[in-house]
Write a sequence for this structure.
């Protein structure tokens, strides 16, 4: 059975020891994917930002805080990964500087300089081999569902993914979600509204099927 690498949760980008930038991701979808992959018989490495969730039993979890730490942990795990699910809501930016300790409160306005974080999934997908890469796209900007799919398709191409799961922003922290999956061959699959565990099990089976096809095609 293949080894599955999953990124999950938000990242925290510290300004100082106690203050940080983050987002509303709970990690639920990533943890559900990790649990489903383990239940399907895969070895699973879960690289997770800070969440309140307990890692599923049988899964190797690597706890990280920032995007840079998440990237480093994923790079270490990539060599043995066959399928990569990028489910983490990685902060797009981080403060340029991190101050030591907790600087005292100061009432004066100040501006914060932010620098872009690396795109973890795109960076991992540059070393593709036979791996199957699955990304998630949560897009509150798109005007309608078809614009959302178009943007997700461009994202799939830009990041070098095999599959992209399109969610809308109501999925953040929600129990149930309806997703559409796009593949690199131009197909769409719409899943009914269901809980994240059912969606996760379905996505794992789809990624496993893609991986098996790739391995079969590669064998003489
Ligand atoms: O570009 P956008 O943030 O919409 O892409 C979302 C997908 O890319 C998700 O699969 C997410 O885990 C991944 N991603 C990443 N590193 C980033 C930003 C997004 O791995 N810095």
């Amino acid at each position: 059975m293949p080894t599955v690498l999953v990124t999950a949760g938000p990242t925290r980008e510290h300004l100082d020891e106690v203050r940080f930038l983050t987002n509303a991701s709970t990690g639920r979808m990533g943890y559900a994917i990790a649990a489903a992959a383990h239940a399907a018989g895969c070895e699973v490495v879960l690289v997770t930002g800070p969440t309140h969730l307990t890692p599923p039993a049988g899964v190797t979890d690597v706890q990280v805080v920032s995007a840079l730490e998440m990237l480093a942990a994923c790079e270490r795990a990539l060599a043995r990964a066959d399928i990569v699910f990028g489910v983490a809501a990685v902060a797009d930016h981080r403060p340029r500087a991190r101050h030591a300790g907790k600087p005292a409160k100061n009432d004066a306005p100040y501006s914060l300089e932010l620098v872009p974080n690396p795109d973890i999934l795109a960076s991992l997908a540059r070393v593709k081999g036979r791996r199957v890469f699955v990304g998630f796209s949560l897009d509150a900007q798109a005007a309608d569902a078809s614009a959302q799919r178009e943007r997700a398709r461009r994202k799939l191409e830009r990041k070098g993914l095999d599959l992209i799961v399109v969610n809308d922003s109501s999925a953040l922290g929600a129990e149930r979600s309806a997703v559409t999956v796009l593949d690199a061959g131009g197909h769409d699959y719409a899943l009914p509204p269901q809980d994240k565990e059912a969606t996760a099990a379905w996505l794992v089976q789809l990624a496993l099927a893609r991986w098996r096809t790739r391995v079969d095609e590669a064998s003489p």
